[in-house]
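Hi, here's the filled form for the chain we discussed.

Project: internal
Contact: R.S.
Residues: 345
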Amino acid sequence: MNNPGPSMVDWGLAVAVGSRLAGQGPVVSREDAAAVVAELRAGAARSTGLVRDFSGLQAADDTAPVVVVDRPGWVQANADGFASVLAPVVDKLAGRARTSGVAHAVGSRVTGVEVGGLLGFLAGKVLGQFDPFHPPAGRLLLVAPNIVHVERELGVDPHDFRLWVCLHEETHRVQFTAVPWLGDHLLDQMHALADSLEPSGLLDDGFRRLTESLKGGTRGENLLEAVSTPEQKEIIDRVTGVMSLLEGHADVVMDGVGPQVIPTVADIRRRFNKRRKGVGALDRTLRRVLGLDAKMAQYRDGAKFVRAVVDKAGMAEFNAIFDRPENLPSKAEIAAPTAWISRVL
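And the returned structure, exactly as it came back:
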């Protein structure tokens, strides 16, 4: 009997598990917490003009609000986003799965615990995030306790560090609001991925490959790669190209603007880059399996790509990359900027 029920993921349970695992973060007095929230909001507002002047991208000021959240707030926001964005994937899998109502209910809770565990781990790592899929035009999330935790851990000037984070995250807000088709393009890729999914494809040899990854085997695949078919990997490669561009562009902007407004930016960058490598064997393993190592590569490779194109052609010519989806770089072009210049410019 095909009875998928309302959802293949118990999102309420995922939020509960994720929030519990995430914890509350560093101890901060109520007065200091309010001051941090106010400073982050002011830093994001100040960053808008700085990003515009450096990048040449013009974002509407009245769209995509800035929301300062704690760790449970980040978990809730991402669970809401996943539930919406992954709806076509979940619907497709549910429509093809043949399960009883009881089996489905049990499965949704198991999946809820798994998703909650992932969100709980990430909730302690993320400093900020732009959610392009939140209606009507996205929103910028700044995770206050994580920013305070990292600035203390690095021993950097807290006010400089908060503005530095805001510059990076505000660049993402500018990217998506100045280029309104960008969010739809990424959503189209999600739909294409959903169209390629088969429930059996998740069970063939994905878990064997994932086990090899956990053991540090030669394949070294992360969770997504371990359960992907060649067709799905093509889509993932397209998304990787876009995300490398966006993350690298944000790093270039923050490093370009930083010296003008952040006195200790060089020290912050040096210490933060060291931290990005992860600490401890468990942390490094989880980063590899969850694809966070690939995320770090996106910052590095994307920034090299952006700098190479801007050095060759200038920022105004580089911005042709945002004219239409066809101008976005492929994953291969991220590693070969001259190929993108030849194709587009």
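Let me know if anything looks off before we file it.
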